[in-house]
Amino acid sequence: MTIRHLKVFLAVCDQGGVTAASRKLFISQPSISAAITDIETEYGVKLFDRISRKLYLTEAGTHLQEQARYLVSLFDSIESDLISSGTRGILRVGSSVTIGNRFLPSVVIRFREAHPQIEVKAAINSSEQLERRVLENELDLALIEGIAHHPKIVSSVFLQDELVVVCANDDPLAQSGAVTPGELAARDLILREKGSGTRELFDRTMALQQISVEPIWESISTQAIVRAVQAGLGLSVLPYWLVQEELSAGAVTMLRLSGVELKRNYTIVYHADKFLTEPMRDFIALCREIRAN
To answer: What is the distance between the alpha carbons of residues 49 and 110, in angstroms, rounded to a whole number?
Structure first.
């Protein structure tokens, strides 16, 4: 089995059939079919079920698809690195919303000073999506909130933060300075989206208190959440460092969540099989030197 076999197989998966894959790759349909048959014959497996002239991945095909996508992406990355050798390189970095807003710009500035020939391409997304992209080698490394869940991902904590409850300044709770988990769950909540590290930690903490939470509003935008809280539409739970400026400016009020600790780690993650280049190691080192301004 060669990298060509894997690329043909993935094209059939992505395009939904041999004919479409043939058009995509500019390869004849018999050649596409032959490549799939080569894999099935060599390893004694069946990659697709052919039902009503449609192709459906078998269990073996599904497993191969996950591995092939990573290997092809890795091959393309190696090929790209060789082609661009001696010119300028690219570092593909992912970041959660919190880290992207609060820390990533300063790290990238310092990294560029040390490596002016390296272009940093950044992608801001949820921790869940970043983990997936690291696994598929779409990112060289990522900075996420919380922990990674896949055994093939290496994680290293570089900073700690905590979540805080925020409310409007004229909210009755603003005078008390604290709220219980039960009181919080009874209020309208405006939270980060499912899949974010912030939301994951909050949901897990409330579940341990045997409290179910259903927000009235979910958003990937912290700015939108803070404005909604400021307008009195509900309470929110957000990373302290992300709302530090708003708190200092008196835009919203911070509450203590009684009896509950919402500390969490910021983590650098990369694929266990990833070769760490010198620029990658330097970027990781800069992240570990981060301190809040």
So the answer is: 52
As beta bridge partners, residue 50 has 55
pTM, to two decimals? 0.57
Q: Cα torsion at 213, 214, 216, 221 (round to 10°)?
A: 70
Q: How far apart are CA 63 and CA 68, in angstroms?
A: 9
* CA–CA dist 50, 41 (Å, integer): 16
Decide if 267 contacts 157 (C-beta within 8 A).
yes
Residue 13 has pLDDT above 70, yes or no: yes
Q: Which of 72, 196, 57, 229 is nearest to 125 (CA)?
A: 196
Cα–Cα distance between 42 and 192 in angstroms, integer? 48
Amino acid of residue 4: R
Query: What value does the mean pLDDT take over residues 251-278?
Result: 89
Amino acid type, 202: F
* Residues 6 or more apart whose Cβ sits within 8 Å of residue 280: 91, 140, 141, 270
**Residues 51-104: pLDDT tens digits?**
877 889 999 999 999 999 999 988 887 876 665 554 468 899 999 887 888 889
Residue 168: alpha-carbon gap to chain centroid: 30
Q: 142-185: per-residue pLDDT in tens?
A: 999 877 888 899 998 888 888 999 999 999 999 888 899 999 99
Structure confidence by residue, pLDDT tens digits, 182-226: 999 999 999 998 888 788 889 999 999 999 889 999 998 888 999
Q: How many residues does the chain have?
A: 293
For the chain, domains (ranges, CATH) are: 3-83 (1.10.10.10), 89-159+266-288 (3.40.190.10), 161-264 (3.40.190.10)
Instruction: Identify the helix (H) or strand (E) that includes residue 265.
Output: strand 263-271
Work out the number of other CB atoms within 10 angstroms of the CB of residue 221. Answer: 12
Residue with tokens 């996950």: 66
What does the block give as tokens for 86? 């001696």
